[in-house]
Amino acid sequence: MAPSGLKAVVGDKILNGVIKSVKKEGEWKVLIVDHMTMRILSSCCKMSDILAEGVTIVEDINKRREPISSLEAIYLITPVEMSVHALINDFKDAAFTYKAAHIFFTDTCPDGLFAEIGKSRVAKFAKTLKEINVAFLPYESQVFSLDDPTSLSSFYSSEKSNDRNKMMENVAEQIATLCDTLNEYPAIRYRKGPEENAKLADEIYQRLNAHKADNPKMGEGPDKARSQLLIVDRGFDPISPVLHELTFQAMAYDLLDIKQDIYTYQSTGIGNSKAREVLLDEDDELWVQLRHMHIADVTKKVTELLRTFCESKRMCTDNANIKDLSQMLKKMPQYQKELSMYSTHLHLAEACMIKFKTSFDKLCEVEQDLAMGENAEGEPLKDAMKSIVPVLLNSEIGAYDKIRIILLYIFHKKKGIGEENLTKLIQHANITQENSKIINNMQNLGCNIIAGGRNANNMLPERKERTESTYQLSRWTPIIKDVMENAIEDKLDRKQWPFISNPAPINTTQTAVSARFGNWHKNKSPTEYRSGPRLIVFMIGGVSHSEMRSAYEVTRSTDGKWEVVIGSSHILTPTTFLDDLKGLE
């Protein structure tokens, strides 16, 4: 599947803006990357595309490399001390590692490091020195990450306040490069309350203006004046990252051991089972189709698609199940790629269902009732304590799942609970002192945990009435979805979501698409396709899979008039979120 959205834009920028810009016919080059740029590269470019543009080898700047003094090197690196010093070292000795250097930084190089480059021998051999403004990871077509899993602690640890300013400047610069890459110059809004929201919004505003001065194209185009960037903090919705979600992607990442988007499972062949590794990303069309579906629909859908596929290839299928798949592969080895893709997703869905049926079906019901404040019939929850005690006393339920229930119970109580009550709950649930830190540290995010405590005035936002029918165990909608919809309909409260500077007056009449020039984009680069407005949401402290899903759902509901892009320092699963909280000082 060709990359789309964010991935396509960044891939295009790297291939055209970096690699092709220094390509010479008949000359090979070496491409040198560091940890972050390697992650960016692998998220949006295929190795074959890079090699096709005259690159002979891709190497890690921090590893020992063989000198190739006959070739020029392209350095695509982040402007940090470790990478810049490694670059300087490559040209330090009389016999230098490469013939010349084409240096591309992901974003602005700090003056100190720039001066070091100027004084070193690299300066003589550098043929190119540019900043490409891609200091973020395009994680999905509408999701970005700053690839910094330590961010929750840098924002919310009480001890790190002096590092915080430096870190905010970095984050602001990274978000500014995202806007620059998307050619957006959005109006910036933030959630009023936590001071870091206003501070970050202000930093971004200053950086955006600096980028706009260098790249006047930013924000030009019909309807672009309506684009907005929202800054939201994790404490705004502490419920979504702790609930058990039953949509495919969120559920798989919560319940199964998926490391760096790789799912490992035992595939059963005839007489031998071997471990298979599968990368869950947008190159897999089936994954894109299934990832936001409710688990109850996934298996049905895969089986249906498999049947259609087999019929189109004139294979007979009576009952398309996994056992038949290995038989089919024997008969039709030429379709190995397609059939193993179906098999992977059947496995994945089955693994989720097995986990769910063993321990989570009852748990999910309790969680949904607490989050919604009512049961599936819409009757208000009268005695929440009665529904959580059996869960806390159940020795088969793990500590983290109990902590998730206790947190949901506290959020349900709106004003927090008494310290004695909390101690009792922790004892009932048999939670260690180390793990009980998670619950107390939620207060660092501004959440109301202890009644009358330091966050006594902070209330969770009022919710939007939703009437669409859902599964009983998936009644909760992430709060950010309300915000996205309201922002697009221009209904967001300006007192609660102030602008950093007054936005341009919005002309709401739709610009007509000329029939004669309606197909102008046939030969444009992906960066230029999107002429409508974008809503960019940045969540401080991590974004959950259900919130990522909301961005796609809201985009779909506008019939493509708007595109919602959501991102954060990193992607959360419930377990990593609780781990992050436990580590707060």
What structural keywords apply?
globular, 21 helices, alpha/beta, six-stranded mixed beta sheet, five-stranded parallel beta sheet, 13% strand, 585 residues
Helix and strand arrangement:
Elements: H1 5-19, E1 29-33, H2 35-44, H3 47-52, E2 55-60, E3 72-77, H4 81-90, E4 101-105, H5 111-119, H6 122-125, E5 126-131, E6 137-140, E7 143-145, H7 151-156, H8 161-181, E8 187-190, H9 195-214, E9 228-233, H10 248-255, E10 262-268, E11 273-279, H11 285-290, H12 295-312, H13 322-331, H14 336-372, H15 384-393, H16 399-412, H17 419-428, H18 433-441, H19 479-488, E12 534-540, E13 543-544, H20 545-557, E14 563-568, E15 571-572, H21 574-582
Parallel strand pairs: 1-2, 1-3, 3-4, 4-5, 7-14, 8-9, 9-12, 12-14, 13-15
Antiparallel strand pairs: 6-7, 10-11
Question: Could you characterize what this model shows?
Answer:
The protein has 585 residues and is an alpha/beta fold. It has 21 helices and 15 strands. A six-stranded mixed sheet has the order 6-7-14-12-9-8, sandwiched between helices. The protein has a five-stranded parallel sheet with strand order 2-1-3-4-5. It has a two-stranded antiparallel ribbon with strand order 10-11. The two termini are 44 Å apart.
